[in-house]
């Protein structure tokens, strides 16, 4: 919190200050060499202020009569300095030089007064008046300095930049935490090819589109491109275009000026493109971006500048753009749901991530990485059983790496002992079949929900077995479980 400016106490009899002005400036007391030294120092300070201070200064007596004003102050209010030296601030208000006076407010309240003033010259400034009191608490002088609105905006922009740096550092910290948890697995030829491509394009500044099914790790690839680029020491900001409401996405990306819309901050807000200065911005689910905003993104790419919502000036940007989507952008272009010119501008480099079922060499190494994280988190020493490994290699993994991570978390918790047994999440067909078979069963014949569900499972297994003509191997594959697991279930049923 900024320390309030103290009132300076003046002795009525001598007219001299009884308090120290500042440490090192001496005391203004009558008599002796100390007085000459202090007066000489005060004169030097005053000369320096008048010559080099780039804001206006007004000093008045306790009645509001101006006893000092610098040239900039006179220029700002549009009145010659010689005339101002014979004016009272009340007279200036009456003549419409400005609409109100912080000097009068300071005299009336005996407290510091701050306000924004507009002059007849159309100039405006932030005015700050501090009262000087005598030992009885009476105002004998006021000191006022005014900061122009232009300089005030410059300070606001500096503060905005500092806030952007703080925000960027926080996002970078979050990114580094995520990066430490990420372990790239590229055992398969398909993923080795992807990594080689990343190593080639990462040092460039060209836009990148990462394509792939949901859960294939597109966000991790974007982070890797950033980490291996010359921008790695700057911000990496991730934006999910599908998660932000359409009416807010533009202001999030490009920022807005104060009062641009209802609910906007009075000082406005910088956008993520500005916050990512010198770094990388990752636009996930780019296919969900509205057409109107696609047009503005295209201009930002081509002109390397953006304009805030409600703003009138263009702001230069230095950002690399990486996009990702699981949508078919070519088809969207044909259907006029995605701008063709934007697609070609973004697709300087295209990376296609294969689904997990096409990179089976990576399944077990990925599972072991997830298991290592879980063991470290919970202080356990669990391992994958041979049955789990075999079943995982045969599973289709429609949810890709995301599904694999979720499965590992589930079987880590539910598997008895230290050996993990793999049981895939039931498919929609399985759930519907169980529902239909259970719905037609009399619940009174079961003692518990466990017995009820076990019976439904047995009926479903038998249905799949019959449809596979009794072939256990095909049945196990259809059920997504290992053959030995199916044998145990069938043996348990017979018993």
What does this structure look like?
By secondary structure, the protein is an alpha/beta fold. It has three domains: 117 residues, 2-Layer Sandwich (Beta-Lactamase), CATH 3.30.450; 173 residues, P-loop containing nucleotide triphosphate hydrolases (Rossmann fold, 3-Layer(aba) Sandwich), CATH 3.40.50; 135 residues, Orthogonal Bundle (Helicase, Ruva Protein, domain 3), CATH 1.10.8.60. The protein is built from 20 helices and 14 strands. A five-stranded antiparallel β-sheet has the order 2-1-5-4-3. A five-stranded parallel β-sheet has the order 7-8-11-6-12. A two-stranded antiparallel sheet has the order 9-10. Strand 1 and strand 2 form a beta hairpin. The longest helix has 33 residues. 24% of the residues are buried.
Nearest-angstrom radius of gyration?
Answer: 37 Å
Q: What structural class do the secondary elements suggest? A: alpha/beta
Within the largest sheet, what's the order of strands? Answer: 2-1-5-4-3
Query: What number of domains?
Result: 3
- Uncertain residue ranges: 1-10, 12-38, 177-182, 426-431
Q: DSSP helix count? A: 20
Amino-to-carboxy terminus distance:
78 Å
Total number of β-strand segments? 14
What's the architecture of the largest domain in CATH terms? 3-Layer(aba) Sandwich
Kindly report the name of the CATH homologous superfamily of the largest domain. P-loop containing nucleotide triphosphate hydrolases
Largest sheet: 5 strands, antiparallel
In the CATH scheme, the class of the largest domain would be Alpha Beta
> Can you tell me the overall shape?
elongated
């Amino acid at each position: 919190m900024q320390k309030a400016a103290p009132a300076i106490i003046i002795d009525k009899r001598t007219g001299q200050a009884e308090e120290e002005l500042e440490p090192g400036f001496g005391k203004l007391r009558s008599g002796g060499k100390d007085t000459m030294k202090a007066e000489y120092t005060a004169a030097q300070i005053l000369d320096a202020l008048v010559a080099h201070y780039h804001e206006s200064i007004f000093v008045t007596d306790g009645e509001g009569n101006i006893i000092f004003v610098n040239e900039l102050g006179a220029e700002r209010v549009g009145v010659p300095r010689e005339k101002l030296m014979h004016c009272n601030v009340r007279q200036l208000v009456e003549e419409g030089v400005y609409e109100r006076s912080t000097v009068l407010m300071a005299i009336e309240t005996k407290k510091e007064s701050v306000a924004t003033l507009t002059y007849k010259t159309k100039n405006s400034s932030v005015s700050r008046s501090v009262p000087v009191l005598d030992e009885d608490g009476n105002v004998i002088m006021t000191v006022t300095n005014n900061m122009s609105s232009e300089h005030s905006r410059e300070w606001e922009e500096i503060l905005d930049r500092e806030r952007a740096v703080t925000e960027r550092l926080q996002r970078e910290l979050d990114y580094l935490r995520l990066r430490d948890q990420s372990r790239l697995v590229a055992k398969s030829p398909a993923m080795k090819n992807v990594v080689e491509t990343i190593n080639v394009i990462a040092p460039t500044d060209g836009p990148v589109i990462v394509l792939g099914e949901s859960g294939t790790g597109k966000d991790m690839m974007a982070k890797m491109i950033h980490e291996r680029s010359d921008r790695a020491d700057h911000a990496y900001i991730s934006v999910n275009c599908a998660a932000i409401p359409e009416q807010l996405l533009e202001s999030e990306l490009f920022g807005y000026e104060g009062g641009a819309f209802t609910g906007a901050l009075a000082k406005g807000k910088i956008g993520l493109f500005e916050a990512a200065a010198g770094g990388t911005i990752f636009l996930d689910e780019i296919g969900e971006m509205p057409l109107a905003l696609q047009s503005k993104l295209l201009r930002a790419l081509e002109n390397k500048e953006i304009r805030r919502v409600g703003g009138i000036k263009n702001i230069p940007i230095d950002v690399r753009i990486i996009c990702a989507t699981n949508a078919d952008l070519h088809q969207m272009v044909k259907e006029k749901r995605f701008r063709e010119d934007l697609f070609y501008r973004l697709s300087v480099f295209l990376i296609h991530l294969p689904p997990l079922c096409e990179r089976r060499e990576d399944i077990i190494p990925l599972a072991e990485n997830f298991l290592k994280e879980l063991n470290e988190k919970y202080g356990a020493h669990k391992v994958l059983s041979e049955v789990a490994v075999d079943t995982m290699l045969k599973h289709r993994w429609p949810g890709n790496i995301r599904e694999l991570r979720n499965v590992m978390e589930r079987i880590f918790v539910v598997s008895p002992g230290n050996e993990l047994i793999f049981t895939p999440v039931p498919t929609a067909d399985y759930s519907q079949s169980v529902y239909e078979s259970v719905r037609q069963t009399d619940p009174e014949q079961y003692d518990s929900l466990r017995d009820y569900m076990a019976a439904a499972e047995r009926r479903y297994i038998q249905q799949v077995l019959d449809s596979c003509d009794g072939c256990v191997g095909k049945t196990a594959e259809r059920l997504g479980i290992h053959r030995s697991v199916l044998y145990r279930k069938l043996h348990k049923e017979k018993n």
